[in-house]
Design a protein that fits this description.
It contains 12 helices and 10 strands. It binds ligand PBG and zinc ion (ZN).
């Protein structure tokens, strides 16, 4: 008996395959991360992330123009301050590096959406995402004092021109605290993209080189999620939704496709997937050795995130992907 049903019939011609393709990646889905450093005319490549640079504000502006011209709708800004202190002053100061970069980008490229990462790890000497009791050497971040600093950070970022606030420190109640603070400061229309399900992951290694935010002692397991947990991710998003999050993020992406899927099923908010630094570096390393076809691997992976339910993808490959989409 020969088969009656022949799915291969619809694979016989490229145009036919195009017609029945269920998931199509678009530039609209992409968000490009940028790292701002003090100084001028600085473009310092991150060793573990070929093609990714720490950029001074003037260079960030050039980069923002290029990103916009490529048709990518948004960037997310991280900052490396000149000085770090226990109160993470560089995070919330009106002259902070992210604030300066946000203002400069919005002035030069008003239609590019600027997302500000809202966290303290780049701004504290210990590298943790929140406030520590003076003398603490264990890294047990104090939740509620951290919220106060995050509120100030979010408001100053919004004042500087950031279009979207993206709190990433996994503090309990951070969405609500930031929502109230933004509203009180007159930023009722500034959306919050919450890093809702962020796992304690080894895939962040290269980012910590880029952002100079490696914890100096302890680790982030008392605030980031345990990689074994999926139902807990649903708990996290339930809280974030109740607290007023406008969009939800899953991070990392590759090892957490099931989480992207579950969150998409469980909520009606846009879902973002963060294709993190380690995921980028692995692909780059293999590609630089000519072991894989970078374009095909990246496009397959990004399409996979979308198929899993991601509406938005934060990726260091965004500029490449935009070019490849242009063919
Ligand atoms: C911390 C933060 C991390 C990333 C962005 N912000 C993770 C961490 O250091 O724990 C990782 C991004 C990446 O790896 O690309 N707030
Ligand atoms: Zn952090």
């Amino acid at each position: 008996m020969f088969p009656t049903h022949r799915p291969r019939r619809l694979r016989t011609h490229p145009q036919l395959r195009r017609m029945v393709r269920e998931t199509v990646l678009s530039k609209n889905d992409l968000i490009y991360p940028l790292f701002a450093v003090p100084g001028e005319a600085i473009a310092k490549e991150v060793k573990s992330m070929p093609g990714v640079y720490q950029l001074s504000v003037d260079k960030i502006v050039e980069e923002a123009k290029e990103v916009y011209d490529l048709g990518i709708p948004a960037i997310i800004l991280f900052g490396i301050p000149a000085d770090k202190d226990a109160d993470a002053t560089g995070a919330w100061h009106d002259c902070g590096i992210v604030q300066k970069a946000a203002t400069a980008v919005k002035e030069a490229v008003p239609d590019l959406i600027v997302i500000a990462d809202t966290c303290l790890c780049e701004y504290t000497p210990h590298g943790h995402c929140g406030y520590l009791e003076v003398g603490d050497l264990t890294g047990r971040v104090l939740n509620d004092p951290t919220l106060e600093l995050l509120k100030k950070t979010a408001v100053s970022q919004a004042k500087a021109g950031a279009d979207i606030i993206a709190p990433s420190g996994m503090m309990d109640g951070f969405v609500q605290s930031i929502r109230v603070a933004l509203d009180e400061a007159g930023f009722q229309d500034t959306p919050i993209l919450s890093y809702a399900a962020k796992y304690a992951s080894a895939y962040y290694g290269p980012f910590r080189d880029a952002a100079e935010s490696t914890p100096q002692f302890g680790d982030r397991r008392t605030y980031q999620m345990d990689p074994g947990n999926a139902r807990e991710a649903l708990k996290e998003i339930e809280l974030d939704v109740a607290e007023g999050a406008d969009m939800l993020m899953v991070k990392p992406a590759l090892a957490y496709m099931d989480i992207i899927w579950r969150i998409k099923e469980a909520s009606n908010l846009p879902v973002a997937a963060y294709n993190v630094s380690g995921e980028y570096s692995m692909v780059k390393a293999a590609a630089l050795n000519d072991w894989i076809d970078e374009e095909r691997v990246v496009m397959e992976t990004l399409t996979g995130f979308k198929r899993a339910g991601a509406d938005l993808i934060l990726t260091y490959h965004a500029k490449d992907a935009a070019r490849w989409l242009d063919g």
